[in-house]
Amino acid sequence: MLNANDFPPLPSQRARRRTGAQGRAHTSVRARVNGVAASINDLPDELWIEILDYVPALDLKDFQLPTLANLSRVNKRINSLVIERLYAGYNSFFCEPYLFLRTVMAKPWLAENVRSMQISYGPRVHEDRKRYTPSVTDRRTIKDSLKAMDIPGWKAWATDCNDDEVERELLYATILMYTPNITELIIDDGELSYRIPKWLDILRWTVSGGRLGHVHRFLQLKTLRIDIGYLKLRHLAPIFKLPGLNTVSLTGLVDIGRVERGKPDALRRLLPIGTCLVENFSVHKAFVDDRILDVLLQCFRSLKHFEFSHTDELYPEDRDARERTSFSNLNRSLGRHRLTLVGLSLHDIIIDNYYHKSPGLMGDLSQFKKLTHLEISSNTLVHVHDSSPTISAENLPPSITSLVVFLTTDEREHNCLEALIHLASQSRHVLPLLKEVRIEVEDRFAKLKKYDWERLRRLWADVDVALVVKIEDEDEDDGDDDEDFVWHGSVRNDVDEDTESEVESDEESLYSS
């Protein structure tokens, strides 16, 4: 027996006991099975909440959406605990959009639980899935709800949503209109039968002050991540005007539109200087012309974290040789944020050494007085093709605490290691706050596993700086568990040991209510 003094009832148990005592005279005694009267219904709410933390709804590796759906049907009390998690997010990989839309339209209290959306659209996306055929009642629900929303052209919008061959992107956009508490939006962009995605149209109307019926203003949206297929910055301009947005990530952006120097142009009018409140901005696997990138960086009021990875894999075949990314120009564009930037990552991704055009050196970063974390490619930090390259500590931010250097398959970049030796000799007095140097190597032949890391470690240890080395083998299909090699001082550990396979799920329609 439990001692009530040592294990007092939890708050939810006290409330239930008071309710139970009032109706006990009218309740039959529960039958005992093998002398045990407890059941799943006796678990306190606090314990249920702890248990539900181990039952993720939309996790690719641990897909538990059917489990949550089944739990929600046990009784009203458990339903009240589960329902918030069941509708916390929408992912087009798992969920039939029409049924989800119908549910959030018919039950707005469920729509208020939705915090994140992850959607993919374009040719052949989800084409293997059987489309839901709406009933007459379903069509009426969609039509009446859009009419009540009072958006311009609601009749045509409702007709399109109820069409058997509707673009799924239209359904996703409509779901967005009914989820006022959404905080995170993740989009895999693709080609559509119309020019601008509807979700972007909705955001454009929202920030322009135009009339869009009773659609919410996306005040809770904090994070937006877009894997770009066909969009350009001129299309994406509205997102930078969202008042609550804090983090934006763009992947695969290619934009070489011309910006005439000294003249106001269309893009600068769309992105006025200092008007965007986003603090964390990243652009991955991109090629953006310097002048376009400058307009974009000037629109931010005060950036705290900026990531940019440049690649020539996405270069247009008809590119103008003058239209390229230069890290030295990027340095100047970032000057506006020299007193606010605390994290900076610059990565030059080399796909083909022969055709690759380097963005050049980053230059002097000492102006960034609050920068504590710097990630940078070796060919951006030093002249790696020099026989004896050096790094001047005076060109690094004096506030830096961690430095990450990326080395690629180009063996000439390995000269950077000698430059790091030179840097170690200067760092004690010039970089007094530096605590860790991390070297990440993409080495096709893993030759650097034989490098004398201990010598380099001792040099950095002499100035009280830790050295961490990670070497990634390119061949990930050889079945070898030793995919990555990490070296911490004299200790070697295999990493990335999680070999758990993704769990495929039945595409069940779990949001039909």
From TrEMBL:
Residues 37-93 form the F-box domain. InterPro entries: F-box-like_dom_sf (IPR036047), F-box_dom (IPR001810). Pfam families: F-box. Residues 473-484, 495-513 have a biased composition (Acidic residues). Residues 1-26, 473-513 are annotated as: Disordered. SUPFAM superfamilies: F-box domain (SSF81383). It comes from the Eukaryota. This is F-box domain-containing protein. The lineage of its organism: Eukaryota, Fungi, Dikarya, Ascomycota, Pezizomycotina.
